[in-house]
Amino acid sequence: MRHIPIELIFTLSVLIIVCSIEVGFRVGRFIHRHSKNEKEAPVSAISGTTMGLLAFILAFTFAIVTERFDSRKELVRDEANVLRTIFLRSEFLSPNDHAEAVSLLKRYVELRVLAVQSRTIEEIGSAITESEQIQTALWSKAVANARRDMNSDVGALYIEALNEMMSLHALRVTVGLHLGVPTVIWCILLSLVALGMFGIGYQTAIAGSRRTLATFLLAVSFSLVIAMIAELDRPDARYLVVPQQPLIHLKQWMISWPPSSPSLG
């Protein structure tokens, strides 16, 4: 589902729902004409049960994607805090290493924002690769400084912050790229959509009712929910993007650092 455009998912969902209702209506009308034993009450109960199962699966799937969306927002905030700590602790490095570390950290923050704003998986992958290269460069500088003073507590704190940065990077990649709604759940969801809408059409025909334009309202409503779930589930989302304000504020803060000293009058 991640490789299918959201607009196409919405359109296909509408078609599946409308076609399922129409097929159910035709089958129900045929049976209603040729059999007097088919009653509305049991059909209504079965259709309602199917729609209840569909509502449960929709809620279950929506809970999965929203929980992961919240986790991604928390990871952005945590990463911004760690990067701010690294930026401040880099001042204890040698002057040359400090200047290089500051430049690398600024580029790193820029890449983190660009990765989320990217429109394709390829652009996201390119930003991740460059981010990992910067991590390697920062780690090499930290190791070189630590070897010059193996008993430095400040160096240990700097390395600890780098370790946490790398761990958060791995978490963001895992949660954002590799975790998604399983294909089995998508198949069950779409199957229940088709069956539930078939039941609605079938019940309508058994009750002796005619087709109604409200069918399209129902199709659009369910399709919007399905499209929203699919959008929340993908890393290259265009409409429901994880806010990057903590990293954007951090980037602005890095540019204005160090703050001007107040006048002592």
Q: State the separation between the terminal residues, measured CA to CA.
A: 64 Å
Structural class: mainly alpha
Using only C-alpha atoms, the radius of gyration works out to 28 Å
Main sheet, how many strands, which sense, barrel? none
CATH class: Mainly Alpha
Tell me, briefly, the overall form: rod-shaped
CATH topology: Methane Monooxygenase Hydroxylase, Chain G, domain 1
Output the helix-strand order. Answer: HHHHHHHH
Mean pLDDT: 86
Q: Report the uncertain regions.
A: none
Number of helices: 8
Helix content bin: over 70%
CATH-derived architecture: Up-down Bundle
- The amount of beta strand, in percent, is under 5%
Give the beta-strand count: 0
Give an overview of the whole structure:
- This protein has 265 residues and is mainly α.
- It has a single domain (6-250), classed as Methane Monooxygenase Hydroxylase, Chain G, domain 1 (Up-down Bundle), CATH 1.20.58.
- The chain has helices at 6-34, 40-89, 95-117, 121-148, 153-178, 183-206, 214-232, 245-256.
- Helix 2 runs antiparallel to helix 6.
- It is rod-shaped, with a radius of gyration of 28 Å.
